[in-house]
Amino acid sequence: MENVKVENRLQGSMPKIGIRPVIDGRRGGIRESLEDVTMDMAVTVARFLTDHLKHSNGLDVECVIADTCIGGVAEAALAAEKFARAGVGVTITVTPSWCYPTETMDTDPHMPKAIWGFNGTERPGAVYLAAALSAHNQKGLPAFSIYGKDVQDMGDNSIPEDVQAKLLQFAKAGLAVATMRGKSYLSLGSVSMGIAGCIVDENFFQNYLGMRNEYVDMSEFVRRMDRGIYDQDEFEKALGWTKENCQIGHDVNPPHLTRTDEQKQGDWETVVKMTLIARDMMVGNPKLAQMGYGEEALGRNAIAAGFQGQRAWTDHFPNGDFMEAILTSSFDWNGIREPFMLATENDTLNGITMLFGHLLTDAAQIFADVRTYWSPDAVKRVTGHQLTGTAANGIIHLINSGPAALDGTGRQEKDGKPAMKPFWEITQDEVKQCLEATQWCPAVDFFRGGGYSTDYTTREGMPVTMARINLIKGLGPVLQLAEGYTVELPDDVHDKLDQRSNPTWPTTWFVPNITGEGVFKDVYTVMNNWGSNHGALSYGHIGGDLLTLASMLRIPVCMHNVPEDRVFRPSTWTAFGVMEPTGADFRACANFGPLYR
Q1: Distance of CA 435 to CAs 223, 330, 422, 429, 482, Å?
Q2: Number of CB atoms found within 10 A of residue 311's CB
Q3: 59 pLDDT exceeds 60?
Q4: Whose CB has fewer CB within 10 Å in the chain, the N or C terminal residue?
Q5: Other residues' Cβ atoms within 10 Å of the Cβ of residue 273
């Protein structure tokens, strides 16, 4: 992976997956006959997970297997101690046989947990699964049930496809939970333009995510720029790369508001410095310690952040669009690397939604305004064009003032189709294409301090998921999501619609998958029921993964179009209303409460 940087930028080791082989503890022939097959099952699961999963930073996922099979409480305690020392953040219990549930179960209340009970007839692994889930539910420790639909023979070390899918969906979501725990969200500034999502709700971060909140006034950017508290050599490198690779777009400002060439050059220098400084504040920079700034060198251990910008900053300084777009992309002047999660306008809730998507997909995210629903009739009236194909029932214009990751151009590819890929899969040619598909337009006049905004149009045909967390008084956090596809319009049609908004900003034309019922009966109804002005867009149909992650954190999902066969939640959720799963989700989350309360 030439010029690809794989590293853990944050303090704390990466969480591991603990594999718990449980066994019938009766000696005298029963346990002895099961030792090898049970441990083999654990080894097979560990090998499968390490072969198929990476952390979002590109590091390999590690599994830790208990030293012995777990036949009772003493061995369960030994396994828990080993896992604690090893940094295990999620556990999977496996067994082909009957065991004693309350004596062998994982009782850590903060540990996402699943049980694979082998579907075989020689030994009742499925009976243990049912009994163990019952014990977990009775004790208020929700666990995920993994049970293959087809009977296997004892000693069959293969993992059926349906079991594989559940193992991966559970493990990836569980690792996301463990990765967030103990990390920071960094607010760079405060509330932007009265947007409620900017208001930091510390109870949400602490009780639901296990995260802490850090705050820095935007004047810290000025201090560091004025005093040179950034890597001077990297600044020169970054500025040179920017001039070489960032194409200047059209300046739409009227002559009396157009900035001079000298001002524009100064803007480039400022926005590049802002990018370095924001990154350093998030994750630190050892070069600053060499310069005599030991405190600044440590950073804030921020796994996500947000920049207020408007208006306290942008009325006087260049906007944060370049900083946000470059940091959230999978590459910069130092090469290809993990994208940062940085929300525009310090929308903390959209920033965390971006973090969810990144941890589940390993890829960059698109931050956007959920700006406009264009009906087929409205498009025809304004442009004369009849929407067809995927767009036939209308489109949603996702657009924002610049911070959308350059990966969102769709110039990366998987199997010959546009994609947003984990950074370690991106090629240098794809980086070049993303940059060539992007123009940097001088900021529009309401950014009185100048700056540059990204302008691109996302390629069509990408499966994507739009999501958003909202906070509701008396209820708490609620997640909504919509799976769908990106589409493109003929250039002249796009231009006419784009000009009615802001042609200097990046556009993604989005069409949600419609079911014909409820809030997904048509495209308009999806737009009409979106809970905020912002949304985060992830590559792939990851709604099922988001549902799994949300259930681990006890965040109910009020709106989704995920097919039933991809909905995977703890087994006890059905006890709260199997005939109405959305209501059951709300009741289960309220009953068990936030994960870290």
Answers
A1: 31, 12, 17, 10, 28
A2: 14
A3: yes
A4: C
A5: 21
* N- to C-terminal Cα separation, the chain: 42
Q: What is the mean pLDDT of the chain?
A: 96
The stretch 214-226 carries a mean pLDDT of 98
Instruction: Give me the residues paired with residue 367 across strands.
Output: 536
Cβ atoms of 52 and 93 closer than 8 Å: no
| 347 noted as active-site residue | no
CB atoms under 10 Å from CB of 486, counted, come to: 25
Helix (H), strand (E), coil (C) string for 296-352: HHHCCCEEEEEECCCCCCCCCCCCCHHHHHHHHCCEECCEEECCCCEEECCCHHHHH
Asked if residue 77 has pLDDT above 70, the reply is yes
Rounded-to-integer distance, Cα 19 and Cα 45, Å:
8
Burial of 254 (0-12, 13-18, 19+ CB in 10 A): exposed
Q: How far apart are CA 321 and CA 324, in angstroms?
A: 5
Q: For residue range 115-135, what is the model confidence (pLDDT) as tens digits?
A: 999 887 666 778 899 999 999
Helix %, strand %, coil % for the chain, to 5?
40, 20, 40
Q: Assign 156 to helix, strand or coil.
A: coil
Q: Which of 62, 332, 345, 430 is catalytic?
A: 345
Tell whether the torsion through CA atoms of 556, 557, 562 and 563 is positive or negative: positive
Strands 412-414 and 534-539: what pairing? unpaired
Calpha distance 52→248 (Å, rounded) = 41
Residue 470: what pLDDT? 98
Answer yes or no: are the C-beta atoms of 330 and 426 closer than 8 Å: yes
Tell me the C-alpha distance between 56 and 330, whole Å.
11
Averaged over 532-558, what is the pLDDT?
98
Block residue for tokens 């920079």: 285
Distance CA 464, CA 407 (A): 13
Catalytic residue among 75, 332, 362, 369: 369
Cα torsion 512, 518, 521, 526: sign: negative
Whether the pLDDT of residue 239 is over 80: the answer is yes
How many Å apart are CA 407 and CA 411, to the nearest integer? 7
pLDDT at 149: 87
Catalytic-residue membership of 369 = yes
Band (pLDDT 50/70/90 cuts) for residue 1 is very low
* Residue showing tokens 């214009």: 397
